[in-house]
Specification:
- By secondary structure, this protein is mainly alpha-helical.
- It has one domain.
- Helix content is 67%, strand content 0%.
- α2 packs antiparallel against α4 and α4 runs antiparallel to α5.
- The protein starts with a helix and ends with a helix.
- Pfam families: DUF3784.
- This is DUF3784 domain-containing protein.
- Keywords: Membrane, Transmembrane, Transmembrane helix.
């Protein structure tokens, strides 16, 4: 059984989410997306001074890019991927998020 066989929703939802992640990736990698990083945009000036904003945007941008690529693979190959790929996708996204959190609290601090 493939992903396409088990999908109950519209395909356009996946492509809209993919487009949002691509836009976030571009904004973050360009260095202008720090306002999209939750916690950083609400931090005080003293807390923001403890982080390298450029590195932080780069780390989050790469992380969002990984998720965007995973969504692209899912959308393009849903007719061929087994339905159990959803679990692999979930694990990869969780690992990506954990890596983003670790890197943002280690290499992004001044």
């Amino acid at each position: 059984m493939t992903l396409a066989d088990t999908a109950h929703g519209s395909d356009w939802i996946l492509w809209v989410v993919f487009a949002v992640f691509v836009i976030l990736t571009i904004a973050l990698l360009s260095g202008h997306g720090s306002k999209f990083i939750s916690g950083y945009n609400t931090a005080s000036k003293e807390e923001k001074a403890r982080y390298d904003e450029k590195k932080l945007c780069r780390v989050y941008g790469i992380g969002m890019g990984v998720i965007a690529i995973l969504l692209l693979i899912t959308g393009l190959f849903e007719s061929f991927l087994p339905s159990s790929f959803v679990y692999v996708l979930l694990v990869l996204i969780v690992i990506d998020v954990v890596i983003i959190i670790i890197l943002s609290n280690t290499i992004c601090k001044r």
